[in-house]
């Protein structure tokens, strides 16, 4: 990680976030009273309180309906007393739930409210269980049916609080079993067994609802965590972009300042070293002085070219490189560049083959930029092609109506895993490092940037021991013959007058 200098990888960062999330979850579970995270404990109790608060009216109406029907088999006073007792327990439970919902979540004692709701559920279910005293004498089937309904409602409302659901179900089961003391015939025993079985089934269903609620809360927590990470990543990205913009601005200012500061003494170095190299004011006393002056002049030229390349690349990256477009012949530019690099190629006994289509129309492009593109490509081809090798230059049409320049050499080629390196700024392949070839590693990035400015396409094809081919494609929109003719408004009328006079 330190050698890369770029911080942890994406996989390592994801693994660290997952470990931190697991540790946080384990710590929350250790401090929880239900084995879940503390936030889940509150959310489950809150869901229970909301369900109970929303069911107060239906429960009250159900209690009044049962009391009214029970008055058929028992005294109205007894049925009314039971109904008042039931409504009191429902009201008490509602007041407790509303008080809980009104409290600040940060100040809620989860374990205390859980016990309070358990007691409220037990009290309310006990009131429902008293139904057996109201209708057991003459409406056994009606009482059992009512106990099943109440068990279903109670377990579903208290599903998110399993302890409260158990507390609500126990009095109802006891009430159903107590009916066996009134009647022990086969029908009664079968009905009681079915009622108790139904209540146990509702309890299992409530456990399923509880598990589904916990899964939903976990999914929501994971989604919230992802949103939080995305927000944090966005904040980090914005901060990184701000710093990058500041660094880019500082770099531009530095390059603008240093270019002037470096070029001023370089001009003096180049001028005086050329005078000394050419022995303008007389021959040197020692022959080595002439060689030293030539070395100084060549080093100065190399440094000046390096400064110019850095400035060109910085302008291209900043979008400040302005194209000076004009009509030009691509074949003529390539021929001039080939002639300039011909001396270096002959010095290494290299052969350059040309295949230039002489019928190509003119292009609307920046001649200086295209000349720099071709010179960089030819310079790389001559540099990395071994002595006696061959270099092939092709200029012609593309299938889409554009024009292309192809430079192919018979050099050792570039490994596939190094193509991204040579295309990056200051990137140099292993071959250039091993052979100690001079270069800044800016040639291909500058070429690609200039091609992109022209709206073209840059392709690099290379394989080890098979050579390298670089293709620059210029779009059809820059070919002059494909552009529509421009009509000048003031020229139509005079031409018609001249034809009329001639007639």
UniProtKB/TrEMBL annotation:
GO MF assignments: protein histidine kinase activity
Reaction equations catalysed: ATP + protein L-histidine = ADP + protein N-phospho-L-histidine
Enzyme Commission (EC) number: 2.7.13.3
Composition bias, Basic and acidic residues: 13-26
Segments of this protein annotated with the region Disordered: 1-26
Keywords: Coiled coil, Kinase, Membrane, Phosphoprotein, Transferase, Transmembrane, Transmembrane helix
Record-annotated membrane-spanning stretches: 53-73, 79-101, 122-155, 161-182, 189-210
Residue span(s) of domain Histidine kinase: 257-478
EC main group: transferase
Source organism superkingdom: Bacteria
Pfam family of the protein (one): HisKA
PROSITE patterns in alphabetical order: HIS_KIN
Coiled-coil intervals, chain numbering: 223-250
Protein's name in the database: histidine kinase
Organism encoding this protein: Methylobacterium goesingense
Upper lineage: Bacteria, Pseudomonadati, Pseudomonadota, Alphaproteobacteria, Hyphomicrobiales
């Amino acid at each position: 990680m330190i050698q890369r200098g770029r911080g942890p990888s994406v996989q390592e960062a994801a693994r660290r976030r997952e470990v931190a999330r697991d540790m946080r979850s384990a710590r929350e579970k250790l401090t929880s009273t239900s084995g879940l995270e503390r936030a889940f404990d509150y959310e489950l109790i809150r869901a229970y309180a909301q369900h109970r608060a929303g069911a107060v009216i239906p429960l009250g109406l159900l209690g009044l309906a049962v009391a009214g029907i029970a008055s058929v088999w028992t005294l109205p006073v007894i049925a009314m007393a039971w109904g008042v007792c039931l409504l009191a327990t429902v009201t008490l439970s509602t007041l407790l739930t509303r008080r809980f919902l009104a409290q600040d979540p940060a100040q809620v004692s989860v374990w205390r409210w859980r016990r309070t709701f358990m007691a409220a559920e037990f009290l309310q279910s006990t009131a429902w269980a008293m139904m057996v005293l109201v209708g057991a004498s003459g409406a056994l089937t009606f009482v059992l049916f009512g106990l099943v309904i109440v068990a279903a409602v109670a377990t579903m409302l208290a599903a998110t609080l399993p302890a409260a659901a158990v507390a609500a179900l126990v009095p109802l089961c006891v009430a159903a079993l107590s009916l066996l003391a009134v009647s022990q015939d086969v029908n009664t025993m079968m009905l009681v067994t079915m009622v108790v079985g139904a209540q146990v089934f509702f309890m299992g269903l409530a456990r399923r609802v509880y598990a589904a609620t916990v899964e939903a809360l976990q999914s929501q927590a994971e989604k919230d965590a992802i949103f939080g990470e995305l927000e944090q990543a966005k904040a980090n990205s914005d901060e990184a972009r701000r710093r990058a913009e500041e660094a880019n601005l500082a770099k531009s200012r530095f390059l603008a300042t240093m270019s002037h500061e470096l070029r001023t003494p370089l001009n003096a170095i180049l001028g005086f070293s050329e005078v000394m190299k050419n022995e303008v004011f007389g021959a040197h006393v020692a022959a080595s002085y002439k060689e030293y002056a030539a070395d100084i002049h060549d080093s100065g030229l190399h440094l000046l070219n390096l400064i110019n390349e850095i400035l060109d690349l910085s302008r291209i990256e900043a979008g400040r490189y302005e194209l000076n477009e004009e009509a030009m012949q691509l074949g003529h530019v390539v021929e001039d560049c080939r002639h300039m690099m011909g001396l270096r190629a002959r010095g290494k006994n290299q052969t350059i083959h040309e295949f230039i289509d002489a019928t190509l129309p003119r292009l609307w492009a920046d001649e200086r930029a295209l000349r720099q593109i071709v010179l960089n490509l030819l310079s790389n081809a001559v540099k990395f092609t071994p002595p006696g090798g061959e270099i092939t230059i092709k200029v012609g049409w593309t299938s889409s109506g554009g024009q292309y320049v192809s430079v192919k050499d018979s050099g050792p080629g570039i490994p596939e895993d190094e193509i991204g390196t040579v295309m990056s700024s200051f990137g140099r392949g292993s071959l250039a490092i091993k052979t100690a070839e001079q270069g800044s590693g800016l040639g291909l990035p500058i070429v690609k940037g200039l091609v992109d400015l022209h709206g073209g396409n840059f392709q690099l094809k290379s394989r080890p021991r098979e050579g390298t081919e670089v293709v620059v494609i210029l779009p059809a929109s820059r070919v002059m013959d494909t552009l529509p003719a421009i009509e000048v408004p003031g020229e139509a009328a005079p031409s018609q007058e001249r034809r009329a006079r001639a007639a």
